[in-house]
Amino acid sequence: MRTILRAALLCLLLPACRPDQIEHLSNTKELAVEAENWQVKRIMPADLLRATRWGGDSLTNTADRELRRILAEKLQEGGVAAALPYCRPATFPRVDSVAKILQGSLSWVSPRPRNPAHRANLTPQELVPTDTTRRVARLSAEEFTYQRPVVLNDALCLRCHGTVGQDIKPADYALIKQQYPQDQATGYKMGDAMGVWRVNLKRAGVAELYTMKTRKIMKKRKPLF
Hints:
By secondary structure, the protein is of the alpha+beta class. It has a domain at 45-151 and 193-208. It is built from seven helices and four strands, in the order ααααβββααβα. It has helices at residues 2-13, 28-37, 45-83, 93-102, 158-161, 170-179, 203-213, and strands at 104-109, 135-138, 143-151, 193-202. A four-stranded antiparallel β-sheet has the order 1-4-3-2. The longest helix has 39 residues, at 45-83. InterPro entries: Tll0287-like_dom. This is DUF3365 domain-containing protein.
């Protein structure tokens, strides 16, 4: 009798365990990747310096693009007189937005500045005529710095920073001198390093950027049908 009962019970249980009635998770790989992303990971000093470079590149590239775009618009609208007040990339909304996300600040310094407040003594090694040179450093436990040359690689810039009487009209230079009496930012030619971009970044912003840049993202799978 006991054997018969066991057999009957087994017959009742087996239909409930058929493979076609079990619900399988279709995104187990994605869930595993997401779980790994949420794990607390130790960020090494070299990782923070790598993220400092990423953040500096992002902020200065944004500043470069916005500066060229806005100055081109203003020069077309009203020449040097219209463009002169806009040669301040750190104040542009898009640049400021990126700086806030990265918890950083941007400046442009030069040994021959237009504004004397932007003067800095720079070594020849800092003024190599290529914008691919990067310098990153950790100043303290909470502060990182990034620097790269500002290279004149757009002919539009010569209208304000080239040679007076050749690239810069005398009337335009009179406007420049009126606003910047101590101007030294002329006499440049294409390919010259005019100064350097400097970026200061906080550790929290650098660490967050490293975490996001190294986060694994699953590619969407194509549907089977």
